[in-house]
Specification:
The protein is α+β, with helices and mostly antiparallel strands and about 220 residues long. The chain has helices spanning about 15-20, 40-45, 75-80, 120-125, 135-140, 155-160, 180-190, 200-210, and strands at about 35, 85-90, 95, 100, 105-110, 115-120, 150-155, 215-220. β4 and β5 (about 105-110) form a beta hairpin. α2 runs antiparallel to α8 (about 200-210).
Amino acid sequence: MRLPRAIGAATTVVSTLAVLLTPGAAHAAPGDTVALPVRDALTALAVQDEDRTGYERTKFRHWIDADRDGCHTRSEVLIEEAVTAPEQGANCALTGGSWYSPYDDIYFTQARALDIDHLVPLAEAWDSGASAWTAAERQAYANDLDDARALIAVSAASNRSKSDQDPATWQPPASGYRCTYATDWVAIKTRWSLAVDPAEQTAISDILDTCPNAPVEVTLAR
């Protein structure tokens, strides 16, 4: 099942963030939890040029029913993020309900009007390190229900406008959501030990300069 979004003040700021978050650091391991200011988390990410060689969307298997409760990942996200809970029928068919798309500040009453967005797109993940992952790791990334920031229900229009872009070329039309978007982007890249390219790093830094230096708590997936 999708776990509730856990956002709040972190109780511990990691002083050795460069050691903890540098890819391959001996002190960090999957399952470890780190908490630190978002600007420090951005600084700690590896910076490298992107490489999309060999990318195919089918290399990230989704949507799956990981807990075998009859609801695949898309439905799990829709159930968790509903403003008004939908009715759940046979084979997890959802009827009724309402949702809010934070990208464009619009409410919806039809689940089919929504896409489930990978906050950090699959192609972007590939570019940033996932090309070296196993198929199982890519499947886990594509269906990550353990961090509520990873997958988000948004309008189909906003999701398709975003496509596989990073914050250097696309930001949510709802300007009031951009601080959250940039912070969550850094959190997911940290969680999965993904790199940022120079333009992406600059764009995120520029956004965060106008935002509170919010603490980010992340459980490392790899």
